[in-house]
Amino acid sequence: MGIFKLPKQLVKKLNKLVRSFWWGQKAQEQKVQWVPWSQMSKSKTLGGLGLRDFENFNCALLAKQGWRVITTPNSLGAKVLKEKYFKHSSFLFAKTGHNSSFLWQSITSARPLLKEGLIWRVGDGESMEIWNDKWFPPKTSYQP
Known about the structure:
Elements: H1 8-22, H2 37-40, H3 54-71, H4 76-85, H5 102-109, H6 111-117
Helix pairs in contact: 3-5
């Protein structure tokens, strides 16, 4: 789950197995569902049980791999991916391509989630595109 995007059918089956475990399925008889699955999958701080939806969890793990490519550019994995897929650009703007590996397609599928949470720390401003990059936190004190 941490490197490859799981097929939707497999994710649905995994979620169904977790739900059937909690609902106590016995000999093809389902017990009463006292709490909806949407409530059970909420985080504990929001009043749920904190059970994970496997599709979201898979996407989060893939975004973590993308984060590793960005933050540790000198690692062997990041160097290999950079040389093969985004030699003259950054990870965030690299193209997926038609003939790319399943690993690369999986990691880039989580890029929108990664972009949603990224902001720039300005620093010296040398590698920043001031009009395109998000460098202010959203709806907070607006301090860089």
